[in-house]
Amino acid sequence: MNKKVLRSLSYGVYIVSTLDGTRNTGCVANSVMQVTSSPATIAVSINHDNYTNSCIEASGKFAVSILSETSPASLIGQFGFQSGKDTDKFDGVDFSIQEGLPVLNDCCGYIVCKVVDKLETSSHTVFLGEVIDGGTIGSAPAMTYAYYHNVVKGKSPKNAPTYIADENDSPENASAGRTDSPEGSASLRWTCGICGYVYEGSVPFEELSDNYVCPICRQSKDKFIQR
Ligand code: FE
After folding, report:
1. What does the longest C-alpha to C-alpha distance in the chain come to?
2. Domains in the chain, start-ordered, CATH in brackets?
């Protein structure tokens, strides 16, 4: 099977939030879809290893914040590349409470659901949620998964249902160097070792301030490696 065909499916980029008791938590998801119109029902796929999974199971509800093209890319790092088990993912995040759940303000809309059913797979739970509230925010277009990859230059967290291991990310290729830079040269590219973001700014990476942080996961400059 050529797994590349799966990349032709279209997705958005979402923050799925819920409650851990009384504490706000959430994670990044790209597999969110409306499955019925009346009643309006949403399906969302969450990895078993995501802390958010057990919290949705316990709380029986979840919210979906729909990221826009103007949403800060750092939100994806904050919610997608660390665990809510030992981190307050909403620390420093602009959000409001809708139907008791936290939803982001830096997005183009939100949907709040109560869980009505679920389907277990070997790695993910597909939660079905009946929509109990929703609203639009601003006018920026929704961020598609393709936009995230092609414009934001972000990578997929390993827990994403659509994650495909990139053979170019293997240590062997990293040590050997890549030869697929946009110019076709054999130059190595500075890549965030945490989230995979590739620096392509006009200023040479070495000349960036020591205060530079990854725009996706906010890790410091020293987390970048050449490959
Ligand atoms: Fe990063």
Report:
1. 56
2. 11-150 (2.30.110.10), 174-226 (2.20.28.10)
Which has more confidence, 212 or 186? Answer: 212
* Whether the Cβ atoms of residue 125 and residue 50 lie closer than 8 Å to each other: no
For residue 219, the CA-to-ligand 1 centroid distance in Å is: 6
Determine the distance separating the centroid of ligand 1 and the alpha carbon of 131, expressed in angstroms: 33
Spatial separation of the C-alpha atoms in residues 36 and 69, rounded to whole Å? 26
Which residues lie near ion ligand 1 (Cβ < 5 Å)? 192, 194-195, 197, 214, 216-217, 219
- Confidence label for 165 from pLDDT (cuts 50, 70 and 90): low
Give the model's pLDDT for residue 166: 55
Give pTM, 2 decimals: 0.81
Ligand 1 center to 198 CA (angstroms): 9
Ligand 1 centroid, distance to 46 Cα (angstroms): 22
Per the DSSP assignment, residues forming a β-bridge with 19 are 24
Alpha helix (H) residue ranges in the chain: 51-59, 74-80, 145-150, 171-176
Q: How far apart are CA 28 and CA 14, in angstroms?
A: 6
Helices (H) and strands (E) in the chain, counts: 4, 11
